[in-house]
Amino acid sequence: MADIHQLNGNLYRALMEKNPKDVLGFLPVDEGPLHKITIHKDTVLHMACYSKQCDLALELLQLLPPSLNQRFANSKNDVDNTILHEVATYNAMTDVATEILNRAPELLTARNILGETPLFRAVRYGKDEMFKLLAEKLDRMDFETEEDRKACLRRNDGTTILHISVFTENFDLALLIAERYGDLISAWDSNQMTALQHLACNPSAFLSGCEHGHLRRFIYSCISNKARGGRCQDLKSVAKSRFRWPIWEALLEEKHRYDAARELASKLLESDTSWEATNPQAVDRGSISVQEKGGDSSVSSKEKAKVDPSIALQHPDEKKGKTSPEVNRTRFNNIRNKETPLFLATMSGIPEIVDEILKKYPQAIEHYNDQGRNILHVAINYRQIEIFDRVVKMEMPARRLLRATDAKGNSILHMVGKKGKRYVSRKSRSPAIQLQEELLLFERVKEYSKSHFLKVFNHNNQTADELFASNYCELHEEAKEWLKRTAENCTIVAVLIATVAFAAAYTIPGGPNQSTGIPLLLSQPFFVVFTLADVISLTYALTSVITFLSILTSPFQLQDFKKSLLRKLMLGFTFLILSVSMMMVAFAATIILMIHNKERWTKIVLYSVAFLPVIIFALSYSPLYYRLLKACTGLLNLALELCPRCTCVSPPSWTTKFFNRRESKPNRFQSQTFSSKCPSIFQTTYSSV
């Protein structure tokens, strides 16, 4: 026993050190390459393939006599992986795979403990060259039925090779699979979902789901749209060149991945007709309830009825008329909780897929799910306002969709007061800004709603305003506490700055003349700079104190968070930053007055040091200030409206486009993510006054 352990240890060490000479020297005579050396029952040949030693694997195969071919075919480790399973995970071992299949072609259909064939395993690890080889061999094999051939493309849990390629984000390989095995496009996994549905749940696979900084966004825009061959040549040239730019290479690869995902989505959409399985009862659901509080809901019996389970969701592979109502009923019940790719892409915030679906099938916009909701309900529920904007531009169908209510009587305005269960914030935002964004969204959707829909009661006897107020009560309290705490802290800082500025006015640099009281350095230019900066600093500090006090004395009503409170906070921050800046200017002027006869470089150093606190202060508060600035752009429009205008000369086109945002609908929100990559609180820029 000790001799066997020592032998296995020597073989294992030689394999890990990639020493083929020692491996061949330690091989036992009777078992040869099929000798098991690990506790998981891996043979020497398993480990040679696992460690990607192609030459050694080929040499070991040559050592196998024909008498061991049957044992070779049955050689598996404790998870039932054959030697071909290990070879399939490496593109460079296609020669080894060919030699193995020449000896034991039945290994092509062998399954491991998960039910994965070598072909499935190659796809799982994204090995396109190995996939092409094994797929070609599989297509040439003779099977008793076509179902036996298809079974090699699926593992025990129902996941197909197309599903797994989408899961692992190998979109180039997924496109090859979709083109070669078109019947897999409409195949379901164990969760009754197609590959397109899974792709529609992955916003990070598309450009709309990425978050680039300013530098990365600029570099990304400089990458031209090239063909795949051009991309490969670019990558090869970058790899061969001595100069490397990692960020360029990363963005080039990222751009290719986004393009491949979009091309895959377009291919998968060719066979998708899931939007045809709509809820017909939702189309006519337009009766509205406007009773007084406490009254019974005037919902028709048709609206109260449950969705008829006889509405068949036929599998795309099957022709009409070949399935019984019982089978269709079962399928409807199985996927009633699953959404179509159109709605999944809307939830995830993937306008690329939504655009492709509506481009190929514009009538898909009429789809209603089993909850009676259309695409506008879903877009608002998951705060995908970019998609909402695109749909409402389709004027004719939008009229019907805008006035629809779901199975619970909720209009699109009600949906503003609701959030999807899988809705989470991807970015950390202050509660006040979150609440303002929700209030602005409510006003925005109200613009699209007809006047008689504003007081619609849902089945819980709530109007949209009441539903919004009840669901955002907690956020309202959080925003109130955050705003109070912020205003109190800033007030303390502003009072301290005002105190320093006031004291500086009575301790002027150089001091006064003892007989006349006139400052000794009054004739110096920097004394004027000191005086002006100190007065301005004191003025701004006191103004910011008054602004913050007005916030603290506010009633903090819900509607106050829409405009007034955040405008006051932004003004207070602005005056506070200006006050700090002027105080440091006064400090710098004082130092210069005291050492006015020093060298020039000394003054430069003093300027730099004096403004260091201002820079740090500005950088610390810049994220919050930036959000406040975006949330309060209405102030700019208000200022422009108060200014006189000359109408005799037409303004430049870019100024008209920038300042007349209020003429059009409010700006769109940025889309976000969902589920494990859920949509976050949207970012918005409003210009309402």
Automatic annotation (TrEMBL):
<feature type="transmembrane region" description="Helical">
    <location>
        <begin position="573"/>
        <end position="595"/>
    </location>
</feature>
<keyword id="KW-0472">Membrane</keyword>
<dbReference type="Pfam" id="PF12796">
    <property type="entry name" value="Ank_2"/>
</dbReference>
<dbReference type="InterPro" id="IPR002110">
    <property type="entry name" value="Ankyrin_rpt"/>
</dbReference>
<feature type="transmembrane region" description="Helical">
    <location>
        <begin position="528"/>
        <end position="552"/>
    </location>
</feature>
<dbReference type="InterPro" id="IPR026961">
    <property type="entry name" value="PGG_dom"/>
</dbReference>
<feature type="transmembrane region" description="Helical">
    <location>
        <begin position="601"/>
        <end position="621"/>
    </location>
</feature>
<keyword id="KW-0812">Transmembrane</keyword>
<feature type="domain" description="PGG">
    <location>
        <begin position="480"/>
        <end position="593"/>
    </location>
</feature>
<protein>
    <recommendedName>
        <fullName>PGG domain-containing protein</fullName>
    </recommendedName>
</protein>
<dbReference type="Pfam" id="PF13962">
    <property type="entry name" value="PGG"/>
</dbReference>
<dbReference type="GO" id="GO:0016020">
    <property type="term" value="C:membrane"/>
</dbReference>
<keyword id="KW-1133">Transmembrane helix</keyword>
<dbReference type="InterPro" id="IPR036770">
    <property type="entry name" value="Ankyrin_rpt-contain_sf"/>
</dbReference>
<feature type="region of interest" description="Disordered">
    <location>
        <begin position="280"/>
        <end position="331"/>
    </location>
</feature>
<feature type="transmembrane region" description="Helical">
    <location>
        <begin position="490"/>
        <end position="508"/>
    </location>
</feature>
